[in-house]
Amino acid sequence: MSMDSAAKEAASDNTAQLPSNSFRTVASFLLFVHLFALGFVVSSNWGPQSEPSQLRRDVRGKLWPLTAYMQILHMDSGYNFYGTYGGVLDVDHILFAELSSESPDVPPEEVRLPEAGMRPGLRRRRYQRLNLAVASQVENQAVESLFPRAAADYLLWKTGESEAILRYRSLLLQPPADVGSSDMVAANPYDEAKFRTVYEARAWLDDGKVQLLKTTLAEPTGPAAPPSFNAPPSTP
Amino acid sequence: MLDAIRNYFAELTERFGNGWNRFWFAPRDALTLSLVRVLTGLIALYSHATLSFDLLRFFGPHGLTPVDAVQSWIGNRYGFSYLNHLHEPSELWAAHFVGFVILLLFTVGLWTRVTSVLATLVVLSTIHRAPMLAGEFESVLAMVMVYLCIGASGDYLSVDYWLRRRRQLQRPLYDREPRIRPSCPLTTISTRLIQVHLTVVYVSMGISKLDGSLGDVWWGGTAIWWMLARPERRIVDLTGWLHNHIYIINVWTHATVLFELSFPLLVWNRLARPLMLVVATVMWILEIIASGLAMFGLTMIVANLVFVSPETLRSLLFARSAAEPVQARTEPTPQMAETT
Fold it and tell me: Which domain holds residue A66?
């Protein structure tokens, strides 16, 4: 038997096990559409943390059925899971709230979300992502106060208090020199010096509805630049 | 000359067509997909269970993510969630419980064809209710769940399989079908889609780390330090030990990028595949330690299993029964019927 005939026989054996032609035609078409849509959304979502260009927005707008299809399947992603760039948003964000009643005798109640030591980790991560969502949209006036207002509503309703001060704070990371430092302030990952307030607002109840006023901070607002990897130990 | 060109293109298209058919449609045993179903189901169940602690806090009447705020936040984004239409605590708890039962049925493999679709609906609805709570883990989980709906993931390691076997054994001996090993082109399509999509995820992860315009921590070999140094996420605090061994951080960082870039190439090579899968498991365990994203790492390890062939898996899981002769087709041939 020649090589050609052997190859043809093997090919025909394979073909015998394959589904019908019509099935393969329809399935191939659907696969092509799906893979094209996947390639399209991955490439059009490229560029982490960056604003999409006008061209990208136009193309996505024109091919909206593909985008919609992938969004419904939660596949409209660039899958650029980079872990960290050591940037301002690659740190933990925590919501601190001071809740107070109308009575001046009662000390304010302090709440932290996620609560310290919250377990399991998947729960904690949901709160962190929500806080990150707020931190990433600071200065975007259309949406920056949406979730702080919801947080104020939840906390005031839950505790029965009438006023709250909300602070979304980022927790800066320790460079190696800080971890090895004999200075307790530098060595403490939760030291006050490592926190930066990225969003602050005062909330109160008015006729049962939450009113929210964003506070203009005296200090520079927004996330601070992260420390350098080779930075010397930070001093108090 | 023209004949040579014509022959070349004829052969090219024929070979491409044959390769395409073999890759996407050659019937495949569903054991691997079934194992992926069980493990993915367990992960989805766990994720759903952890939401029980905060269900009302996030989605309740005074929740942290009200529907109108979420809709304003995401803008014109498509996605269906039945949770958008439930507001009262009793409604939310009922839907949550039903979702839990569906995920449980999917995991144990009862009415898998139906429960796989319903389980995917549960997972996607939870994600679409508040997409800002979802991250890497949910993206990979949704991807695997969607593709598991296509294949016959309930053919093994399932209550469906056990019921089918029991029905067989209750029939008279002459009426029994031969012992069969189901194989189906839809299983191949499902497996291949997970493999291809997973490759895309790896490529994107690897290349995005090399985007120097956003930071040089991956190029500089320090990225793993900044992941380990996040006190709110880490599972184990290794910074106390590693701050004196920076070269380990450097090696770990560069090895992560190298692995993520080489995996999508080498995993398709039959010889390199077992090695890559072992390396992948080690790398993902290290990634879990570094990033604290345990569920993301575990889901990636489970998704990687689709690259293990059913034959290899059978020899690992059922060493004894693998030696027994089995037929590879679902349809009993006349010869089989005569034998029985």
Answer: 3-72
ipTM of the complex as predicted: 0.89
Residues of B in contact with A179 (CB under 8 A): 229, 239-240, 243
Q: CB neighbours (10 Å) of residue B151?
A: 28
Task: Convert the pLDDT of each residue in B292-333 to its tens digit.
Answer: 999 999 999 999 999 999 999 999 887 755 445 444 444 433
Q: Do B72 and A150 touch (CB under 8 A)?
A: no
Nearest CA in chain B to A39: B200
- The answer for residues whose C-beta is within 8 angstroms of residue A187's C-beta and 6 or more apart is A174, A178, A179, A180, A181
CB neighbours of A177 closer than 8 A, spacing ≥ 6?
Answer: A186, A230, A231, A232, A233, B243
The structure's pTM equals 0.89
Contact status of A28 with chain B (Cβ, < 8 Å): yes
Residue A118 within any structural domain of the chain: yes
Q: Which residues of B touch A112 (CB under 8 A)?
A: none
Angle between helices A146-159 and A121-136 (to 10 degrees): 130
**Paired strand residues for A203:** A164, A212
Total number of domains constituting chain A: 2
Last residue of a domain, one of A16, A41, A72: A72
In chain A, residues 113-132 whose CB comes closer than 8 Å to chain B: 114, 120-126, 128-130
Structural domain contains residue A153:
yes
Nearest to A83 among B133, B220, B291 (CB): B291
Interface contact B73-A154, CB threshold 8 A: no
Closest-CA distance, A30 to chain B, in angstroms, reads 11
Chain B residues within 8 A of A47 when measuring between CB atoms: 211
Kindly list the domain boundaries of chain B, sorted by start residue. Answer: 28-331
- The beta strands (E) that lie in chain B are given as 28-29, 183-184
Q: Are B65 and A153 in contact (CB under 8 A)?
A: no
Q: B227: which residues sit within 8 A by CB, 6+ positions away? A: A83, A84, B290, B291, B292
